[in-house]
Design a protein that fits this description.
This protein is mostly beta strands. Helices cover 5% and strands 46% of the residues. The protein is built from 1 helix and 20 strands. An 8-stranded mixed barrel has the order 13-14-15-16-20-19-18-17. Strand 15 and strand 16 form a beta hairpin. It is globular and about 60 Å long.
Length: 294
């Protein structure tokens, strides 16, 4: 959370006081592969680069990827004091999201353009290589799905859960993982749950061999579900009176830290209890532990 906050400050300094959404990716200038904890690694004597994918509603800096260089010791290279850096890549799609597989140098830029059109059946977008600076178009997927949903980087790949829309309703929402070698999506067991009102993903956590999703609707209803990547099965999670969370949670040991769904200035700590039941499957329950004020 602190790293994300500091990165937001650098964006504010470089691009001015603009309402924006940005995705931050850290890459070493050395030949070492990127790992999930790259932001906490110290590579003595080497400079590092921070790659920012920036999307505004409007403005000259939007729809681009920027590189911010950090000198050894943590000092930011002001690049001659010329203000905002020049983009290392630009793209024309309006509604995009970024995702990264942590042990690879590629940044995936997925476009949601056409999600509201029945004829569009998979992601468009780009792959940006942070080493070569090449920006290539994504190849069309052989698997059909609506590209409106949630992308999660987990367990060495990307997972995508489709969102229920007027074109995609009820249970059986598409769920898949990305094969970076074949540059295509692989269909996984569909999301099996259905609800009275349309539910959307509000947060997720990666740990314990599962991807944990929190969902909500416009009527104040919530649900928590888990997908076990090894067993390839979905389970609903008991959560009792737990306060739901939002955004990507951080898992440290046996504790999940996440933003309160109702208050962005409060972090809640949870634990995910797992119990082997009679048929050999796993039952999950989310337990709220304590709160931390921001």
């Amino acid at each position: 959370a602190l790293a994300s906050f500091m990165n937001s400050l650098w964006v504010w300094k470089l691009f001015g006081k603009i309402n924006l959404t940005c995705f931050v990716y850290l890459s070493s200038l050395s030949s070492l592969p990127m790992v999930e904890n790259a932001s906490t690694m110290i590579n003595q004597g080497e400079d590092r680069s921070l790659f920012l994918m920036v999307t505004f509603l409007r403005g000259k800096y939007t729809d681009a990827i920027y590189e911010v260089k950090f000198k050894f010791g943590g000092e930011v290279d002001d690049m001659g004091g010329a203000g905002a850096p020049k983009p290392v890549a630009t793209f024309s799609d309006f509604n995009v999201r970024g995702a990264r597989i942590f042990d690879r140098s590629q940044l995936y830029v997925f476009s949601e353009e056409g999600w509201d059109k029945p004829c569009v059946d998979s992601f468009g977008g780009y792959i940006f290589d942070t080493k070569t600076r090449a920006l290539d178009r994504l190849t069309p997927s052989t698997v059909q799905f609506k590209q409106h949903g949630t992308v999660v980087s987990a367990y060495g790949t990307l997972y995508f859960l489709e969102t229920e829309t007027e074109f995609v309703q009820g249970s059986g929402l598409f769920f898949g993982k990305y094969n970076p070698n074949k540059k295509d999506w692989v269909q996984m067991p569909s999301f099996p749950f259905s609800y009275k009102f349309t539910m959307g993903v509000t947060g997720y956590a990666v740990g314990y061999g599962v991807i944990l999703y929190t969902l909500s609707d416009l009527h104040g209803n919530f649900d928590v579900v888990a997908f076990h990547v090894g067993r390839k099965n979905w389970k609903q999670v008991e959560f009792g009176t737990c306060t739901p969370f939002q955004g990507r949670a951080v898992v440290v040991g046996e504790t999940i830290y996440a933003l309160n769904y109702f208050r962005t200035d409060e972090i809640i700590a949870y634990s995910l209890r797992r119990k082997i039941v009679d048929d050999g499957d796993i039952a999950y329950s989310l337990v709220q532990q304590f709160k931390l004020n921001g």
